[in-house]
Amino acid sequence: VKPSDPAFTAIHAIAELDSVLPETDILVMALPSTAETVGILSRERIALLPDSAFVVNVGRGTAIDQEALCDALNAGQLAGAALDVVVPDPPTIRCAARKICCSRRTSRAT
């Protein structure tokens, strides 16, 4: 789908997610927690992202398999991540400190 805003080159449906992840430089997620979005960025989908990709999540923490995200960051399979919400909060998993930034739900204040 071609968007009307020239700042965007395309809009993709969730059904196309697996086909566009390998081409993604920066994945920005702003998803609610629904049956369709819980775990949507799974270990398998994280593996589809290029090693140079960044993941930014300002939506619900349940959308990301956080253990898989940290495994990918620690293995150098992603360039970095910025998370506004994690589950549980505070996080119990360990990620490469220089590759992840976890804020304290600042997106809801804007």
Could you tell me the radius of gyration in angstroms?
14 Å
CA distance, first residue to last residue: 29 Å
- As a percent range, the share of strand residues is 5-15%
Name the average pLDDT: 84
> What class, by secondary structure content?
alpha/beta
- Given the C-alpha coordinates, what overall shape results? globular
Number of helices: 3
Helix share bin:
10-25%
The secondary-structure element order is HEHEHEE
Q: Pick out the low-confidence regions.
A: none
* Oligomeric state of the chains present here: single chain
As laid out across the biggest beta sheet, the strand order is 1-2-3-4
Main sheet summary: 4 strands, parallel
Number of strands: 4
Write up what this structure looks like:
- The chain has 110 residues and is α/β, with parallel strands linked by helices.
- Helix content is 17%, strand content 14%.
- The chain has three helices and four strands.
- The chain has a four-stranded parallel beta sheet, covered by helices on one side.
- The longest helix is centred in the middle third of the chain and has 9 residues.
- It is globular and about 40 Å long.
- The N and C termini lie far apart (29 Å).
- The mean pLDDT is 84.
Topology:
Elements lengths: L16 H4 L5 E4 L13 H6 L5 E4 L8 H9 L5 E4 L16 E3 L8
Gist of the model:
With 110 residues, the protein is α/β, with parallel strands linked by helices. 17% of the residues lie in helices and 14% in strands.
Q: Which tags fit this structure?
A:
four-stranded parallel β-sheet, single chain, 110 residues, alpha/beta, 17% helix
